Amino acid sequence: MSFDANSADPAQSEEIEAAAPEQSRIVVKDLKYQVSGKQVLKGIDLEVNPGEILCVMGMSGCGKTTLLHCIGGLTRASSGEIWIGDSQIVGMAEDDLNHVRERMGMVFQYAALFDSLTVYENVAFGLMRRRRMRSKQIREIVSEKLALVGLPGTESLHPSELSGGMAKRVGLARAIAMAPEMLLYDEPTSGLDPVVASVVDELIMQMRDKLGVTSIVVSHNITSIFRISDKIAMLHEGEVLVYGSPDEIKSSKNPIVQQFILGHSHGPIEVAHR
To answer: What keywords are assigned to this protein (predicted)?
Structure first.
């Protein structure tokens, strides 16, 4: 598989530009989420600086995706604060929240492409819905984004014709087509072989390094987490167990952290046997 990180020039379109520094800061304060009497998030505190990649890891069911959806405005938190730049979105009116959402791109675990639409139509979907643009400009942006993710010339394909890795990259192209200040990724390398996973990792880092995008990545992939992250947070039973740089996490003496990152079957994390 070939991938040229320089295949697209950010200067080709006005739509690609670095995020405004302070407006792309994400701060979470004492965030709680409860559903059906269960406390899923129990007072989360996190901060992601502009242009950083924060990876959120933890066992299945610990609240990672719920946290991501709360930050992205897809799930309404029960209490606490989520600051997107200078906008506090917990309890925000839907119309105002929609404006904040437009500053963020979401890359879903299973790509979430529309099966009946072509790759071009999937990537152009947000542009056609939210912005008054000429067809020529939309075509240029779609072509540019597909080149950026290493998929030039795939506009006419349908999702059924794509491999898992290609679908993930089309999902990323769709997310960045709107020139977001922030990107939220839910398990971006899940189900991918190591080579394709490394390509996706390179793309995530490229969004940071070339465009200044602030990113939150939910992942189980320990190799990817330590490859791409500036900061790492581990959630355990709805709480932040540890938060710090990759080196700080690796050197943590917490037995739960060590069991998780080393993948040991024995330790304080108990896994139910079926």
So the answer is: ATP-binding, Nucleotide-binding, Transport
